[in-house]
Amino acid sequence: MIRFIHTADLHLDSPFKGLKQLHPKLYDRVYQSTFQAFERLVTLAIQEAVDFMVIAGDIYDGDNQSVKAQAFFRDQMTRLKTAQIPVFLSHGNHDFMDNGTSRLQMPSNVTVLGNQPETHYLNNTAITGFSYPKRWVTERMIDKYPKRANTEFHIGLLHGYLEGSASAEDVYAPFTITDLLNKQYDYWALGHIHKRQVLIQQPPIVYPGNTQGRNPNELDEKGAFLVTLQKGMEPTLTFVNTAPIWWKEKTISLLGIHTLDVLYTKIAEEIARAEKPDQTILLSLKLDDREALPDDVITRIHNGDLLAGISQSENVYLYRISLAPKKERLVFSADDRMQQSFNRSKEHLSHDETYRRVLQDLFKHPTVRTRFADLEQDRHLKTTILQEAEELLLEDIVFEEGESINED
Ligand SMILES: [Mn+2]
Fold first, then answer.
1. For the segment 247-292, what is each residue's pLDDT rounded down to a tens digit?
2. Is the pLDDT of residue 22 over 90?
3. How far is the CA of 74 from the centre of ligand 1 (A)?
4. What CATH code would you report for 2-241?
5. Which residues sit with Cβ closer than 5 angstroms to ligand 1, an ion?
6. How far does residue 11's CA lie from ligand 1's centre (Å)?
7. How far is the CA of 57 from the centre of ligand 1 (A)?
8. How many whole angstroms from 292 Cα to the centroid of ligand 1?
9. Considering 112, 134, 175, 237, which has the largest number of Cβ atoms within 10 A of its Cβ?
10. Are 209 and 195 in contact, with CB atoms under 8 Å apart?
């Protein structure tokens, strides 16, 4: 049996440039967050006495890694060394390997993978991976990975892009799930895409996501995986939240609210509700169903007066209040029949038969058929697709207040 930590995309010393307008005390907390997240993870590794740690790229945020970040990272590696925990790491597109003259030497428990896929051994485990020698590694590095070693376990480290995924990250060292499965390793420790995803359960193919969200678009819980592999047993993946700062977005309904006073109380309640132990929450509130709100209150939301006047709590900082478009009224008030035909189409599409027909290309795709056999039956997926389709359509046919629907 082996137990290890899989992490990636630490982005130490991210500058959080866009947040300089925050109160200095809060900005400092945000700035320290990438460091603190990793420190928490190292503490956990020591407490859990794991066998080793793997880091799949983007340890540092910048090309020229700050001395501060390197010194911090070395201190953390030394803590692991004292606890006799080896570390295998690769550099990614953000922190690719330069000629080494500007680097601090890591302690002896740390193995830095070279520029071509190479395999290292630790007791019964083989670990294969490579570091980026430059920012742009666009070739299919996966083709250079060896087949499974003759050890009890084989782990692949790969900082790269899953082909076909709709991620914002750039296409570096692309691969497909089939490529990975063909190598017959026991675990794929991926990095690069910041959204946490377990692509396959067995053998686990995993993006752990970054350890700390870096902007308001990185909303999911951030952390790393504690992994146990044992022959003949299901692998165990335990997600550990490491982020001291959590970007959150919440939509609240204002049905029936028509005074500033009630609205203010409602927002204060949401702030109190968002409190979490050991975390600072950066909260964005989206107000839906605001039809009953009078115009003067709307104006105070638009011009920032309300946000500026909210009393912030110690651990929850509300940084944005936005209004959802008044879609239903705006779009359909002009024409009743439009609403009716929209609803009819929606209902039509939600029939199982129609839904399957529309999506048959996806469901019949060979990769989908073999890897996600139940996709067609997945009710949750269907609900999500229908909801998102509706939102996208409404988004497109909405028009601004005061604008005429019959443009001529
Ligand atoms: Mn990254």
1. 999 999 999 899 999 999 999 999 999 999 889 999 999 999 888 8
2. no
3. 20
4. 3.60.21.10
5. 9, 58
6. 7
7. 7
8. 44
9. 175
10. yes
Q: Confidence class of residue 11 from pLDDT cuts 50, 70 and 90? A: very high
Residue 260 alpha carbon to ligand 1 centre in Å? 42
What is the 178 CA–ligand 1 centroid distance (Å)? 23
Q: How many A from CA of 320 to the centre of ligand 1?
A: 26
Distance CA 205, CA 6 (A): 11
> How far is the CA of 21 from the CAs of 17, 30, 36, 175, 317, in angstroms?
9, 12, 22, 40, 13
Distance 356 CA to ligand 1 centre (A): 36
Whole-prediction pTM value?
0.77
Give the start-to-end residue ranges of the domains of the chain: 2-241, 245-324, 329-397
pLDDT at 392: 65
Residue 10 Cα to ligand 1 midpoint, Å, equals 7
Q: Identify whether the C-beta of residue 127 lies closer than 8 Å to the C-beta of residue 97.
A: no
Distance, CA 232 to ligand 1 centroid (Å)? 33
Q: How far, in Å, from the CA of 114 to the mean position of ligand 1?
A: 19
Q: How many CB atoms lie within 10 A of CB 350?
A: 15
Q: How far is the CA of 248 from the centre of ligand 1 (A)?
A: 20
What's the gap in Å between 59 CA and the centre of ligand 1? 8
Kindly give the pairing relationship between strand 245-253 and strand 280-288: parallel
Overall residue count recorded for the chain in this entry: 408
Mean of the per-residue pLDDT values of the chain: 89
Q: What DSSP state is assigned to residue 216?
A: T
112 vs 129: CA distance, rounded Å? 10
Q: Is the pLDDT of residue 179 over 70?
A: yes
Give Cα separations from 323 to 259, 285, 304 (angstroms).
16, 8, 12
Q: How far is the CA of 132 from the centre of ligand 1 (A)?
A: 12
- Please say if the pLDDT value at position 400 is more than 60: no
Report DSSP letters for 225-253, one per residue.
EEEEE-TTS--EEEEEE--SEEEEEEEEE
Residue 185's contacts (CB-CB under 8 Å, 6 or more residues apart) are: 128, 148, 154, 155, 156, 203
